Amino acid sequence: MKTDNYFFPATDFEAAKHFYGELLGLAIKFDFSPMGMIAYKIGSDEPAIILKDITRYSDAKPALWIEVEDVMEEYSRLKEKGIQFLSKPFRIKTGWAVEFDDPSGNRLGITDYKAM
């Protein structure tokens, strides 16, 4: 496993884009603004900060996604151990993903790159 990305909800998407892009000077990794998401590089690290527009993702909260080899296998393994997922695994541009909360309400996700 390794860190995939960090997700932050944006209450004002345009202001958040200005903050991360213009004020902090982070380079854009990908821009899916029409879908309510934009990712900013953190130096040369692979993981990025991904802003999620809460007008499109009303249940968004800060989240850490972890890259795994196979989401479906990990989903099954963790489900057997009692992890309560927020949904079934879903397709994303790079593969599959699914999210869950830890006992303190912190959001985690697992993702793979099966579509790459």
Secondary structure elements and their pairing?
Elements: E1 2-10, H1 13-23, E2 28-32, E3 37-41, E4 48-53, E5 63-67, H2 71-80, E6 90-92, E7 95-101, E8 107-111
Parallel strand pairs: 1-4, 5-8
Antiparallel strand pairs: 1-5, 2-3, 3-4, 6-7, 7-8
Question: How would you portray this structure in words?
Answer:
By secondary structure, the chain is of the alpha+beta class. The chain has 2 domains: 1-60, 2,3-Dihydroxybiphenyl 1,2-Dioxygenase, domain 1; 61-116, 2,3-Dihydroxybiphenyl 1,2-Dioxygenase, domain 1 (Roll). It has 2 helices and 8 strands, in the order E-H-E-E-E-E-H-E-E-E. It has helices spanning 13-23, 71-80, and strands spanning 2-10, 28-32, 37-41, 48-53, 63-67, 90-92, 95-101, 107-111. Strands 2-3-4-1-5-8-7-6 form an 8-stranded mixed beta sheet. A hairpin with a 6-residue loop joins strand 3 (37-41) and strand 4 (48-53). The model has no long low-confidence stretch (mean pLDDT 95).
Approximate strand percentage = 35-45%
What is the N-to-C order of secondary-structure elements (H for helix, E for strand)?
EHEEEEHEEE
For the secondary structure, the number of strands is 8
Radius of gyration: 14 Å
Task: Tell me the count of domains.
Answer: 2
